[in-house]
Amino acid sequence: MITKNQYYLQIFLENFLTELNTDLEKNRKIVKSLQFMVFFALGSGAPFLSIYFKQLLINSDGTPATYWIGLIFFIQTFSGIISPLIAGYIADKFKIQNRILATCAVAVFTSGILLLIPGISSLSFNSKVLIFIVAMAMNGLFLRPIVPLIDTETLTYLQTRYNNVNAYGRYRVFGTIGWIVASCFIGTVLFLTKNIIFAIICYSFSFLILAVTAFSGIKSKITTIKIPWNYLKRDTTMKLFLIFVLLFSIGFSSSIYFTGYFLHDKNVNYFIIGLVFGLAAALEIPVIFLGDKINKFLSLKAMIITGCFIIALKLLVFFIIAHTNNPLLFVGVNIISGLGHGLYFYAIVRYPESLAHKDLRATYQNLYHLVFTIGASIGMIFSSLIIEIHDSRLLILLDSLILFAAAIYFLFIPHKISKNINK
Questions:
Q1: What are the pLDDT digits (tens) for 282-300?
Q2: CA distance 255 to 205
Q3: Count of helices and strands (H, E) across the chain
Q4: 344/362 Cα distance (integer angstroms)
Q5: What is the C-alpha to C-alpha distance for residues 88 and 362, in angstroms, rounded to an integer?
Q6: CB-based contacts of 230: which residues, under 8 Å, 6+ apart?
Q7: Residues ≥6 apart with Cβ < 8 Å to 402
């Protein structure tokens, strides 16, 4: 026989646990949706943005304005240098990741609408450049914090639900699926319509959907904590890791934005370009999904190095087969490189998480993206100069060599995981 107070306590605990499980289930769906939508949006735009600029920014002699295209990408990346760190600090300080995420996604949607203007109206060259500069500056400022915030949201959910983040790959895999669907879908649409404006439309409105998804996860309560900055100051491993990130981002960002440009130079059609980018992620799915199993045999550091080597090797093969008459070779090579992408992208989020204090998760993720953005800014100027002086084929070779150098550096730096505090 239970007392009246015991009965009410039992009812309270049952209701509390039911509500907790309901919140966790809702959060599980939200983080999967966020992963899918952000990479669907990126897969719609990233492979085709350089081609969009190439078609709209034409010099008086009829050649693409490579200098201005590189400068526009540089402005995009440069404008986003500091925003990830600010977003990470605010997210860690007030625990409002979804509020920041929704705001950033709306801003990126707005920048996408600006990008559409030169493509649907007759404007002078200078007017197009001005609009693109404003749109891409806004894009870079608000785009850069989005992925690390989503990863932080995913890691926080996993830590709350399972008291570890080993299952990260099972959530990140939805991002890979989003990228594959978007790249293949947009490539097919562009092939059928011959109008690249559809890529920009899909890119823009995907971020609007992302904002709505993020808004659904907003909590009314805002909490404030003290940030343990001394922990970060003493973390030598993180500082050495960030040097690798800088080198990697110069070569990787350059290749991502200008691979489409390179393939377009080689007269590869939109459908094949879409397949190159979309099917490249096919092998990512099993690798990322089974990332925690692979991590039992390969350390996070080994996964990053192996992934980096495979991506570098892919670019080297691209350089070698650049003059092929069979564009499907590019698809085959890129499919194999998906193994490298899977290893790298699974481990590159887990690695800083393994170093971070529990109250610095968003800061560590955004610090990684801050340095990545600095490298990407350098990569954009580097890309335009190489293409202007020589051609996009040489750029692909140099990007490959930079990635090889980054992997070798990371292989030889001292490796000591910091002791996690109150994970």
A1: 888 889 888 889 998 999 9
A2: 25
A3: 18, 0
A4: 19
A5: 5
A6: none
A7: 247, 250, 251
The fraction of the chain above a pLDDT of 90, given in percent, is 31
- 46-60, 80-94, 210-224, 341-355 — which is least confidently predicted? 210-224
Distance from C-alpha of 23 to C-alpha of 176, rounded to nearest angstrom: 25
Six token digits for residue 292: 């925690």
Place of tokens 């990512």: 284
Picking from 219, 331, 350, 351, the residue whose alpha carbon sits closest to that of residue 279 is 331
Name 279's Cβ contacts closer than 8 Å, sequence gap at least 6: 180, 184, 331, 334, 335, 338
Three-class secondary structure of residue 330 per DSSP: helix
User: What's the CA angle centered on 110, arms 188 and 30, to 5 degrees?
Assistant: 75
* 152 vs 186, residue with greater confidence: 186
Structural domains of the chain in order of their starting residue, each with its CATH number: 31-412 (1.20.1250.20)
Q: Among residues 206, 77, 224, which one has the least CA distance to residue 136?
A: 77
Kindly state the average pLDDT of the residues 117-121: 91
pLDDT tops 70 at residue 2: no
Q: Choose among 45, 365, 414: nearest CA to 201.
A: 45
- Please state, in angstroms and rounded to a whole number, the distance separating the CA atoms of residues 163 and 316: 41
- Residues pairing with 58 in the sheet: 64
What would the 3-class secondary structure string for 53-97 be? Answer: HHHHCECCCCCECHHHHHHHHHHHHHHCCCHHHHHHHHHHHHCCH
Q: What is the pLDDT confidence band of residue 18, given thresholds at 50, 70 and 90? A: very low
β-partners of residue 13 are none
**Has residue 305 got a pLDDT over 80?**
yes
Quick one: tokens of 336? 């194999």
The owner of tokens 């377009």 is: 264
How far is residue 81 CA from its own chain's centroid?
A: 14
Q: What H or E segment, with its residue span, contains residue 396?
A: helix 392-412
| Predicted confidence (pLDDT) per residue in 372-408, tens digit | 888 888 888 888 888 888 887 888 899 999 999 999 9
Name the token pair of 370.
């801050």
